[in-house]
Amino acid sequence: MLLTDLSEAPDGDQIWTILERFYQRAGLEVPPRNDLVGRLLHACRGRFGLIIETVIDAIEVALDTGATSLTSEHFVEVFGAQTACDLSQNVFLTNRWSHVDMERLAFG
Hints:
Elements: H1 8-26, H2 36-43, H3 48-64, H4 72-83
Helix pairs in contact: 1-3, 3-4
């Protein structure tokens, strides 16, 4: 069975609901939705497993630092570690996140 890549229009609400449950389960305040789902989808190229992995890693960073809520800084740190990208190419930091060419970034 081949899973199709996710996109924000049809899948965004379901992804947000899943993320809220992860945050609550970890005992973290749910962050504002803003453009987080869009950034996650772009950063993870619509791949559900990579989205979940990135969220879990960000939750771990938050918990390790004693944070009570998940912030964009946690995602910035995780994405930087995953890709070793320049800050200008960090999807969770740059304002032009949708222009970051994910095919050029290596996940490691």
